[in-house]
Amino acid sequence: MFEAVLTLCLTLDAGTCRDTLLPGYEAESRASCAEALAAAPPDPARFAPLAAPGEATCREAAAALEVEEIAPGVFVHSGAIEEPAPGNLGEVSNMGFVIGGASVAVIDAGGSRAVGEGLWRAIRARTDLPVSHLVLTHMHPDHVLGAGPFVFAGAEVVGHAGLGRAMSERRQSYLDSFARLIGPAAFLGSDVPAVDDEVEDSTRIDLGSRVLTVTAWPAAHTGTDVTVRDEETGILFAGDLVFDRHTPALDGSLRGWQSVLEDLQATEAAGVVPGHGAARLPWPEGAEPLVRYLDTLAADTRAALNGGMRLGDAVEVIAEDEREAWALFDAYNARNATVAFTELEWE
């Protein structure tokens, strides 16, 4: 398989460049790929303010992300349980796609354009159907910054009613942080996308004889969480409303998250795809470690408040009993304790 690439460089620093995949030009031969480029040459202005010092060319396709078929037509890539770094390019969250009769929907896109390109190649290795939709389960950068290839290919971006504003407000912070963590050259071309369809309650996506239901939730993990249910198989993509092994990250409402989890556990599902960890968890028992962690976080926070502890002292002990159960505990637990303390002190 051959694919088209365009070298993009930082406008003010021609020494920082990256070969960027141009989705939609895939072909079995180099000549066919070149013919497709000649017939519909890409407009470099679409990548502004990045500069394209040369023309698009065709080459053998680079490696695709590994994905697991967890149910017929439902594929998941399990991200590394790590912080974003040059070695993983921001591939630190779970992503997936569902193949319908007429098109494909992608659920989350990873933490850089490079990761999104790997997911695109995984899709193309399994179907040539168009990618009609990209559903972003929430605003966090490790789930949204790889959207570029899917937007370039014409996918409709779907998310929570507050997602567009939330990403816009945090855009520069996300870009600066991930460029620093991953490296500016490897991160080149990554960005947050515009949201085309903001979901207030729920919406249905018809992929051709296959329907996905996207449901918006009240503030929980964040204020912008949605889930995606494949009605054919009963698989539920939960985004970061469900964590596995990776320490949960609280960026919304502790009480809200506990309430949403209770509702989700009462929902029938053949399996759940968490935002981090295993490709598929049994349901509802797959949520039990997260429920325990959030309950401990709440109980310890209330005990600290009742005991008159100051925030700086409280974060050192809240949920400490959970340390051995989770990876990246030091990176997230103190932050969670701070959010919980701030929320619960006004009960």
How is this structure best described in words?
It contains ten helices and 15 strands. The protein folds into three domains: about 1-60, no CATH class; about 65-285, Ribonuclease Z/Hydroxyacylglutathione hydrolase-like (Metallo-beta-lactamase, Chain A, 4-Layer Sandwich), CATH 3.60.15; about 295-345. It has helices at about 30-40, 115-125, 140-145, 150, 165-180, 185, 255-265, 290-305, 310-315, 330-345, and strands at about 1-10, 15-25, 55-60, 70, 75, 95-100, 105, 130-135, 155-160, 195-200, 200-205, 210-215, 225-230, 235-245, 270-275. The longest helix has 20 residues, at about 165-180. With about 350 residues, it is an alpha/beta fold. This is Metallo-beta-lactamase domain-containing protein. It comes from Roseivivax marinus.
Q: Helix and strand layout, with pairings?
A:
Layout: E1 2-10, E2 13-27, H1 30-39, E3 57-60, E4 68-71, E5 74-77, E6 95-99, E7 104-107, H2 113-124, E8 131-135, H3 141-144, H4 148-152, E9 156-160, H5 163-182, H6 184-187, E10 197-199, E11 202-206, E12 211-216, E13 226-230, E14 235-243, H7 254-265, E15 271-276, H8 288-306, H9 311-314, H10 329-344
Parallel strand pairs: 7-8, 8-9, 9-10, 14-15
Antiparallel strand pairs: 1-2, 1-3, 4-5, 5-6, 6-7, 11-12, 12-13, 13-14
Helix pairs in contact: 7-8, 8-10
